[in-house]
Amino acid sequence: MINPDTPPRFIAVEGPIGVGKSTLTRRLAHSLGYQTLMEQAEDNPFLERFYAKRQHAALSAQLFFFFQRVQQLGELPQQDLIGGSYIADFLFQKDALFAEVTLDANELELYRKVYQQLQVEVPQPDLVIYLQAPVKVLRERIKQRGIAFERNMDADYLEQVNRAYSEFFHSYHQSPLVIVNAAEIDFAHNDRDYQQLLDYLLEIRSGRHYFNPTFL
After folding, report:
1. Cα separation of 179 and 212, whole Å?
2. Which parts of the sequence belong to the Deoxynucleoside kinase domain (predicted)?
3. Which residues are catalytic?
4. Class of domain 10-215
5. Does the pLDDT at position 83 exceed 90?
6. pLDDT 10s digits, 86-111
C-alpha cells in the first residue's frame, strides 16, 4: 500500500468517451488505496435517446448528468476530500464543455441559468489526468465495449467532443495537469505502461506535464 501522504490528495481522470478513463481510475484507486467516484452513465435514462437523436434529448441528458455530479460531490464528507481518499473519473468543470457541444442556444441559456441558481461549489482536484486519443481510436474502443446504443454515436459528434476537450485543457490551469497520449496505451492489460504512469504521477505537485510511454 502506498503512503496516502505521498500522492496527490484528490485526483480526477478525464477524456472523451472510449479513451479509458474509467479503467485507469479503477486501477489507480486500487494501487493508491483510494475510493472511486464514478460517473454513472448507465443510470441516465435519456442517454440512449440522446445517441439516437441528439437534438431530442440533449438537454434532458445534460441536466441528468449535471445533477448527478452535483449530488455525488455534495455527498462527499469534506474531511475525506481534504484527507485525500478519492479518485474520480470525471472533472466537474467538463459538464459545461458538453453543454456547449450538445445544446442549442436556448437550451444552453437555460442550462447556464440552472447552474448559476444552484451556485455550485465543488472542490478542485490536486491533480487532473487528461487522456487523449484520435477519433479513430475512440471509435474502435467504443465498438469493443459492445454497448448497443453507443453504436449510434456518429463520428462528427465524437470529433466535436474531442476538439472541445483539447480546447478546454489547452487553457486549463486550475490544477496540476498531466496530458497522456492514450492512443496506444492499454492500461487494463499493459502493466509496463501503467506502472510508468503511476510512478510519474507520484512526482507531480504543480504545473503542466505530458506523458507518452512510447518515447520514454
Report:
1. 9
2. 11-199
3. 89
4. alpha beta
5. no
6. 899 999 988 999 999 999 999 999 99
